[in-house]
Amino acid sequence: xxxxxxxxxxxxxxxxxxxxxxxxxxxxxxxxxxxxxxxxxxxxxxxxxxxxxxxxxxxxxxxxxxxxxxxxxxxxxxxxxxxxxxxxxxxxxxxxxxxxxxxxxxxxxxxxxxxxxxxxxxxxxxxxxxxxxxxxxxxxxxxxxxxxxxxxxxxxxxxxxxxxxxxxxxxxxxxxxxxxxxxxxxxxxxxxxxxxxxxxxxxxxxxxxxxxxxxxxxxxxxxxxxxxxxxxxxxxxxxxxxxxxxxxxxxxxxxxxxxxxxxxxxxxxxxxxxxxxxxxxxxxxxxxxxxxxxxxxxxxxxxxxxxxxxxxxxxxxxxxxxxxxxxxxxxxxxxxxxxxxxxxxxxxxxxxxxxxxxxxxxxxxxxxxx
Length: 370
Ligand code: NAD
What we know:
By secondary structure, this protein is α/β, with parallel strands linked by helices. It has helices spanning about 5-10, 25-30, 50-55, 75-85, 115-125, 140-155, 170-180, 205-210, 215-230, 320-330, 340-360; strands spanning about 1-5, 35-45, 65-70, 90, 105-110, 130-135, 160, 185-195, 235-240, 255-260, 265-275, 280-285, 290-295, 305, 310, 365. The chain has a nine-stranded mixed beta sheet.
């Protein structure tokens, strides 16, 4: 942890004095007048989502990109130039355990293919750094539990990139539900999907993805059902359909429809697919009101309305808000309205395990997420 003043001293001091820092960057830092702690983050895996997170972090005052971990030297060079990252904060997959000796990095944000999260998070924890991990946290609940245990043992925090947990319109719906404005909740519908392109990508390789659409996009319906209904499901049923078994090989789900039952009697009907476009919709129905959001989980602006009218909360880049809030969670002990820790992610993994089991066996699978 350091302060913004410390950061200013750093960037104007020896490391950057050979002019890597631009006038504009310096001005934007000064403008914030922020004097509190700054979460110094290294990003692992410099792919497309990492690029989005890095751009968004430029507008953060409480979080700052200070390091990178990548297997591609040319990407490291590009990121160093773009984000003023000193050589001493650059690592590759072979040596990033050495980050434990780097006092200038507080947390590592793991943004690599799903199958790599488990080992990488455990290595970061062993290096004594907080970990932020992208969704899905792991390939299954067993792996997820091992990651939680490793972080607890190392006394570091494990947070998961649930950006929707900080999104203003989503939080307004949750406030309304908590205050009883929808009455008794009866039903949730979550439709999540898109037509996936390149058949050679890691998302369609079970070894790297852990599955198919459920791991990638269906998880938004799982997680969304939980935060919209406000309860944990107690059973799951599921049905899988496949139209292209060459593209979606064994263990890579193309489309899964699944249903969940909640202790209060509400039911959820969800669709996860890599085969249909325009599916990004949540609908929540209660005895005295409803909420519908479309788009419900893309990068926004999220749009939605309830029985009371349009939701009008302003759009702020999700990843900017997420990183600001995560800095507050780690350094100020802030409790988010919706949790973003490893235990939260483990619940989603348990449900996904149950969805796959239900689809395979055709049975109703019971869940105990307490
Ligand atoms: P991507 O393919 O664009 O990037 C993955 C990065 O990992 C690449 O830079 C690649 O070089 C690197 N990598 C390291 N080891 C690799 C290996 N063995 N095989 C393949 N690539 C390897 O993927 P992405 O879209 O950035 O997704 C990364 C993670 O972020 C995934 O877990 C994904 O689910 C998650 N994600 C989250 C969101 C969100 O909104 N929260 C959005 C997109 C992706």
